[in-house]
Amino acid sequence: QVQLVQSGAEVKKPGASVKVSCKASGYIFTTHGITWVRQAPGQGPEWMGWITVHNGNTKYAQNFQDRVTMTTDTSTSTAYMELRSLRPDDTAVYYCARTYGDYLFEYWGQGTLVTVSS
Amino acid sequence: IVMTQSPATLSVSPGERATLSCRADEFISTNLAWYQQKPGQAPRLLIYGASTRDTGIPARFSGSGSGTEFTLIISSLQSEDFAVYYCQQYNNWPRTFGQGTKVEIK
User: Disulfide check for A47: which of A22, A67, B77, B95 has CB 3.0–4.6 Å away?
Assistant: First the structure.
């Protein structure tokens, strides 16, 4: 069965960077893209961007364009999301999701809580 | 595109019908999905194309609408249906979600 397993919770100081991983199993990794979504406490989900695994093309939300990098390692079926220059309002649960086409978030990871605090 | 959901909270008794609304501030055709999220869990895809249930989603969930107005109906609420529901448009970039409707036990 399709599974996405994310890395564990992180606590970072303002200005630092975080890199979250998302290990996929149960399907051929290169056949679907990966979307990253975050959810601040008590808020709705926020789309951050999407990466096509087979060629590494990315599309980022304008809000994150200058601070985020999404990559994949096809040898380990793992996707990564790095967010730099962290601020307290980046505190959120970060999710990866297997994506049908570029728009449908079919399967989700369990989420990774990133806390930004001095 | 801004997605607006109403109401913010819906109090419903088990076995009753729940009607959730979602409005887009621009035309999105039927490029709309609905997700269910329970506390401490990731969202789960329920419906896409405004009205097509994902695999394994019970028939008591139905979606309708096109253009800018959409509805999710849960025909007879079961205990496992009490959750937060989000709509999401995929007509334009960036993909955007509504703020959610919490369906709680009355």
Answer: B95
